[in-house]
């Protein structure tokens, strides 16, 4: 790999080179995340936020194909890459004026109705503003490779630490499982069959009585789609760092811990020089371990754990427990954050160029929802987890969950129990008892109550970055009597963008619980619509034809 | 919560979709309150929140063309009347024919539509491509186009009528199921719900895909059959497509919304009935993608964002059921819209409301009445253009 030549390509016409297997966003990150994108409604500057291929912070056009995520796309020599949805450039975008002219947002639900003679013109203008990229204009179409059909007794979704343990335990019992992982390949593991860069996008509930129980649809960027038939599926899809609500929470430089790691690579420098890390637990500690030199403060919505305090003290980093992030200042990148101690403390400003969100790690539970597993709410960290028996069986026969997504640490001993159960598959499928719901309230509950009571000052608080939905719009929907996440989703379009709600629903649930005066599980959850990540029509068209099977 | 505030209503409407809500609106406007609308789901949980937003006036039956023309006029006024912008955009409906039989059908539709004074056009393949240049001309024998057809956002239409109903004093109770209908001396006297019984003289069955189920709870057997249809939305693109496109043959339809997403579906056979719920199938994703990639090759690189499904409420003759059921006085049917309830709702519900009030309507009983299925010989298939 070291001897492989660098990749040479152009970005908006300017020549660029980077090492092979380096994602574009990382190649473009110097001391700051690259400003690649303008948001869909207000053309606010956006940079990579999640870093793992879900959010809309880094969409670019590659060789005529729109909406390619720079955070996961590894450029090839000769690529022509252009930014989209901005004129003349993503740094200086004329339509960015919309953000200034409409400080409280554009009400497309009630506005643009009068005078009636002008309505068709509104339609024309507003329609032109919609959408990210333009129609694809790819070169001469190569015949797409046919989709692949694979049949395995066991599929493991996620080849991280815990997924591999399960794979090894199955190996020891003479069952070779197929592991699917959405990330680029890491160290080779000859004993395991791992397919990297393969994202399971659709896991329908088990069908029929003949043949394999499950049919998974997976997408492989730049390649064909994959359909896998399997008798058992182990979901070990891990977790992700989620968002936080505050004015300016979408500014370039506000990014998740996942995003920070992705833009830094295994050994590289972080995309900032002076960051505030948000969070008081294990993830914040990991950020200090890796990027401590570039961290200026640790801020937590609630308490800060000793593991973080110890590290911060060693590094001389000040700690701000029980502190509200009142605003991120700056336009094209973060210049400072405004903090305030909870309990009506005075606010103070800290000059930083990044806000690293490491306060709340949630399970990648979308496939479990899709497959119909019974899920229950855990107030800490505030997310839905599958109901499981001790062996890791969900309520769906043949479907297991393990590791972070199952809400456990994922101990090797448990992998052994789970593997034994997968292999023997003995006896009737048990009905897992509901997990014990912790009684402690989520620390963000009190945090958001205070946050909502405070004057918010200038600046938009983005409740859903993909669709540019403002916190004010969610509050307005609630005030108007639209209750429940399913209805608020449809009313505001929150959660209907490219990230499929990963980065807006967790906060929206807590928020609506406060606004509606009930618990998050009463606010409900959206139905997890397939696919989990966008899958191209071309890939779907080439899906292998499944053998006829009795309908679900 | 979730409990009606009164014990007695003049009318109880089952189903808070666009049909139920619009019916309540017309009744309240006529001063015929109090009205209660019940729905066991949330607002827009049924077909009113699951359809593709198409509104067309091209039909085989003249009566439907007239209703549709009225509906288009109402949707044009919607923003002014209801305070919500439904983004009704008249980009036209472009039907594609692939065979001589398709073209014969489109010609027949075109004659009816033109004779009603609408500017419908028949197109040769070149004319089709002029309207939608992104289409692959292979396999297109011609088309039919009506520029005043269009698309809208279903959700704000539901919000708007919902708020108007409540403003006019109507009551909408969500998350409450109507369990049955109480009768006395052969006519409706009440509705039983999970929150007890309410007294009423009129029940409107606007339960969409579940209308046969609710009719059965009133002891009435109806020929309505729920059929599941799947639909999907893609990533948003800058606008490139003005009309809604519908292809005869495989029933492929799609349009580009104001948000830039391509929203569309395709007719796939599914087992009838509502028992299987509303899942998405890999077969649909594959079939829709194959059809789209064939018709608009550039979209091969476009990502599908989400797929969902919903129920059409189909009738044997392809026409809705509107009016009081002759077997049970006080029980008014407003269903069987076969996937077109939303586009016709402002017009059809005016007739439903009149039926509730006991007033005559201009609807031909042979085409729309609940009793038509039990006349000797039964109804003949009347409306064949069941797509999009």
What is the string of helix and strand elements of chain B? Answer: EHEEHEHEHEEHEEEEHEEEEHEEEHH
Using the coordinates shown, work out and report the CATH topology of the largest domain in chain A.
FAD/NAD(P)-binding domain
β content of chain B, as a range?
25-35%
CATH hierarchy: architecture of the largest domain in chain B: 3-Layer(bba) Sandwich
Radius of gyration of chain A over all CA atoms, rounded: 23 Å
Number of domains of chain A: 4
Main sheet: strands, sense, barrel of chain B: 8 strands, mixed
Query: What CATH first level of the largest domain in chain B would be assigned?
Result: Alpha Beta
CATH topology of the largest domain in chain B: FAD/NAD(P)-binding domain
| Outline of chain B | globular
Separate helix tally of chain B: 9
Features of this protein?
heterodimer; A: 552 residues; Ubiquitin-like (UB roll); FAD/NAD(P)-binding domain; seven-stranded mixed β-sheet; five-stranded mixed β-sheet; 29 strands; globular; B: 388 residues; alpha/beta; D-Amino Acid Oxidase, Chain A, domain 2; 2 domains; eight-stranded mixed β-sheet; 9 helices; 29% helix
Structure overview:
The complex is a heterodimer of chains A (552) and B (388). Chain A contains 15 helices and 29 strands. In chain A, α4 crosses α9 (412-424), α6 runs parallel beside α7 and α11 runs parallel beside α13 (505-516). In chain A, a hairpin with a 6-residue loop joins β12 (214-219) and β13 (226-235). Helices cover 23% and strands 23% of the residues of chain A. Chain A is globular and about 65 Å long. Chain A has 552 residues and is α/β, with parallel strands linked by helices. Chain A has four domains: 7-129, Ubiquitin-like (UB roll), CATH 3.10.20.440; 148-240 and 363-424, FAD/NAD(P)-binding domain (3-Layer(bba) Sandwich); 245-359, FAD/NAD(P)-binding domain (3-Layer(bba) Sandwich), CATH 3.50.50; 441-518, Orthogonal Bundle (Arc Repressor Mutant, subunit A). Chain B is α/β, with parallel strands linked by helices and 388 residues long. Chain B folds into two domains: 8-49 and 155-224 and 317-374, 3-Layer(bba) Sandwich (FAD/NAD(P)-binding domain); 90-148 and 225-313, D-Amino Acid Oxidase, subunit A, domain 2 (D-Amino Acid Oxidase, Chain A, domain 2), CATH 3.30.9.10. Chain B is 29% helix and 26% strand. Chain B has nine helices and 18 strands. In chain B, strands 1, 2, 8, 9, 10, 11, 17 and 18 form an eight-stranded mixed sheet that branches. An eight-stranded mixed sheet of chain B has the order 5-6-4-13-14-15-12-16, sandwiched between helices. A two-stranded antiparallel sheet of chain B has the order 3-7. In chain B, α2 crosses α8. The mean pLDDT of chain B is 95. The chains are: A alpha/beta (552), B alpha/beta (388). The interface between A and B is large, with 63 and 57 residues.
